[in-house]
Amino acid sequence: MTEPLTVPAYELAQVNIGRLQFPLDSPELKDFVDALDPVNAVADAAEGFVWRHTNTLTAFMYQGQHRELLARRREWFERMREAMAAPWWVPAGHRPTVAEAEERVLHLRAHGPTPYAFTLRTSFPPQGAEPAAPVDIPEGLGCSV
Predict the structure, then answer these.
(1) Full-model pTM
(2) Of 101, 132, 102, 98, residue with least CA distance to 115
(3) HEC string of 65-126?
């Protein structure tokens, strides 16, 4: 007798934002730009990966080539005092928009970790992922998911 397949009701979405210190085609960012395709290939092959914006996030972030690049992030990105990454739960199959990702990171900045938008250190189960309060999204925030 085989076990029935269970389809997850939710998947983890995640956004990172950053402000580059130099233009993307500058010599200062060459190592970073050269590593984008190999690092994204590792993400694409990671267990649990569904789409460019989700994977087994903690394992991917802190292992291998991504960890090496993460250690050098100060060379390429401005230091940000506010939250620059936000995970949140989405219904299985939903693909977040840039506007949704912007709203989630702004919510995290305004309200701290909640089930609606949280951090890797303070996470929540998928249930109850409603916003604590509305958040205005300023034009040109510049998030990418």
Answers:
(1) 0.61
(2) 132
(3) HHHHHHHCHHHHECCCCCCCEEEEEEECCCCCCHHHHHHHHHHHHHHCCECCECCCCCCCCC
